[in-house]
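Hi there, hope your week has been kind to you so far. Do you reckon you could talk me through the fold, stretch by stretch? I've dropped the whole record in just underneath, so have a look:
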Amino acid sequence: DLSPQLGSSAHILCAAVCPRDGTRFLCTGSAVWALSPAGRMAVVAGHESERGFEDGVGGDVRFNCPRGITVCPDGGVLLADTWNNAIRKVLIAVASPPSARAPALPHIVT
């Protein structure tokens, strides 16, 4: 049950799994979450209570109903930002050294 992490009002719209490390990426109404194989979860892009269209880093990014998510061979995540009529890419930064505690912060490009 992911309700404690996502909040009771959040609904998972779609999900994809990274074949390299097993991280699951989940889209909710305006955010992309990463769920590590160890069960750690964090928002990697967007903000659960603020919709819009804004490129940026982590919580500064704004989506409006992200759906249709897939993981690219380079480890980035492509998604359809449905109500913004855009395909967006989340580039996942690699932590130095990689941390098992939380997913790395991404940045967004259109």
Summary: The chain has one helix and eight strands. Residues 95-100, 102-110 have pLDDT under 50 and may be disordered. Residues 43 and 84 are 20 Å apart (CA to CA).
